[in-house]
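Risk register update: the risk of archive-format incompatibility is retired. Evidence:
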Amino acid sequence: MNCRILEIEAHRKLSYTWVVGDMDTVVTVALTPTTSDVRLSLVQAGFKPDQRQNCAGARYGWKMMGGRLVDLVAHTSPQVGE
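Archived output:
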């Protein structure tokens, strides 16, 4: 896999190309503070119409990794009242 950083905004946003074979997409991860926590947004864009299987695979992978991230945060963050 090859990538190229497109944009970095410290503690806010990271955008990079994700190149695998003939698939060239852009991944953007953004953190947005809310009144009580931080919202994480992840978008992978640029799939071509003939790359439906690639898009489905990316969706599956990001959901799996997002679930692992939720579990990690739940186990490492201080609980209310601690």
